[in-house]
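Researcher: Good morning. I'm working through a list of sequences from a screen, and I'd like to move beyond sequence-only analysis. For each chain I'm collecting a predicted structure so we can compare shapes side by side. This is the next one on the list. No need for commentary yet; just the structure.
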Amino acid sequence: MPEINKRSIVIKDLIEHATYIARDNLEVAEQFLVAAEETFKLLGKMPGIGKVSQFSNPRLANIRQYQIKGFKRYLIFYRTAETGIEILRVLHGARDLEAILDEYLEDEEL
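Model: Good morning. Structure tokens for this chain:
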């Protein structure tokens, strides 16, 4: 079974998104969390299905992205590793993704 490692900020991302969704519908927020975990498992089994992000920053060249099943506006950013995948962030697609990931790189060594 491939390893699925999540950076600690991923838990924060998931909680923030689920909390936002829960303001309108608690059941959908729960479905979001389940769908995220199912998508993480899918990526662990098939890490190549996510597309390579097309960011201009060369430090972001190895990062792949894939939408959460049933929640196409929410994107999982990850990279492949020898033993599985590393989930870096879960972000809403309407945000400035490159700026957020670039800032994250400054705070964390990828």
